Amino acid sequence: MADRDDIWLSNHLEVLLNHIGNYLLVCTKSKNINTFGINIEMKTNKKIIDLNVDRNNLLYRLLLFDNCVQSCTIMFDRSLIDDFIPIPEKVKYHDYWLVIITAMYKKIYFINKITVLYRRRNLRSGCVKSYY
After folding, report:
1. Which of 21, 36, 68, 85 could in theory staple to 131 by disulfide, Cβ–Cβ 3.0 to 4.6 A?
2. Is residue 2 part of a domain?
3. Please, which residues have CB within 8 angstroms of residue 131's CB and are 6 or more apart in sequence?
């Protein structure tokens, strides 16, 4: 579910495949870039990310606050498709929906590695909220 202008790093699929194992959904970090491919300094939620907690619990804590997962970084087991579809019209972010549904099974793994360059277009001056 990446946009055509996002960039998957050469190891993106390998990293996801190496971690999916016993999990139903795995995801990685992404780096925000601008139209020209230049890294964009983004405001991050350091207080949440820097919590000294078990990595599996960290993802669930982040989900309590906001959508912290981008669909272009996700790989999920096809057995979840019936749970995912249809996505309710009131759901604002489809990636958040996928992660919330999967969270019920407690089989999500967050890989603390950047594997995608996420292109942000038409940014106004100032910071944009992002967790990665």
Report:
1. 68
2. no
3. 44, 45, 48, 49, 62, 66, 68
Domain count within the chain:
1
Give 1's DSSP letter. -
Q: Give the separation between CA 52 and CA 71, rounded to whole angstroms.
A: 26
The answer to whether the pTM exceeds 0.85 is no
Question: Residue 31: phi, psi to the nearest 5?
Answer: -115, 135
Task: Give dist(CA 119, CA 30) in Å, integer.
Answer: 10
- Taken in order 27, 28, 29, 35, the sign of the CA dihedral is negative
Total Cβ atoms within 10 A of residue 10: 8
In a domain? residue 40: yes
Greatest Cα pair distance, the chain, in angstroms, is 43
User: Residues 109, 110, 113, 119: what is their CA dihedral angle, to the nearest 10 degrees?
Assistant: 120
What is the domain range of residue 30?
7-119
Chunk the chain into consecutive blocks of 10 residues (it has 132) and report each block's average pLDDT, rounded to whole numbers.
Answer: 76 96 90 84 44 50 65 91 91 84 83 87 48 38
| Beta pairing class for 108-119 and 25-33 | parallel
